[in-house]
Design goal:
The structure is a single chain. Helix 2 packs across helix 4 and helix 2 packs across helix 5. The radius of gyration is 16 Å and the shape is globular. It is mainly α and 162 residues long.
């Protein structure tokens, strides 16, 4: 991207006249560009966060992208795996993406690929890193009720069965 910062890029991208329903293309494009970088650039996470905060449609589309990316994570090269995972960790760590997306992760022997544990490890390491940087505490952080809610999610209950 040729913009100086993510806000300028976001402003330029939002100027594009998208028909209703085409917002998903913007989300896919952002993820694709992010994945092609040699190392993860926070720029893309900030841009994704910006879109999610502006319009719930983008949040819903990144939710769908999470499901799609996780289902084909085993096809990604290592570099792309890291970048995509860090992108979603950024969205989760800044609460731009709802935590219910973790319910899409199923850790059974049948559903787990060699890339799944890597994805999950990076995802949680990055989210924890956000909490130490103060991103979570600056917007309220997780409450006990949030954590209690997550304990009922398939993801967390499936861990015990591995």
């Amino acid at each position: 991207m040729s913009s100086v910062d993510f806000e300028e890029a976001g402003h330029k991208l939002l100027k594009i006249k998208l028909e209703p329903g085409q917002e998903m293309e913007l989300c896919i494009m952002l993820l694709e560009y992010c994945s092609r970088e040699i190392t993860y650039l926070r720029y893309y996470g900030l841009l994704g966060q910006h879109f999610c905060m502006i319009n719930k449609v983008y949040q819903e589309n990144f939710d769908k992208c999470f499901v799609q990316q996780y289902s084909m994570i085993h096809r990604l090269e290592t570099n792309k795996l890291y970048n995509v995972t860090k992108f979603f960790a950024h969205l989760l760590g800044t609460f731009a993406l709802p935590w219910h997306v973790l319910a899409y992760i199923c850790l059974t022997v049948e559903d787990t690929t060699s890339s799944s544990p890597i994805f999950i490890k990076i995802l949680f390491q990055e989210v924890v890193d956000f909490s130490f940087r103060g991103s979570m505490s600056s917007i309220g952080g997780l409450t006990f009720d949030d954590v209690r809610h997550f304990s009922s999610i398939t993801f967390l209950s499936n861990i015990a069965h591995i």
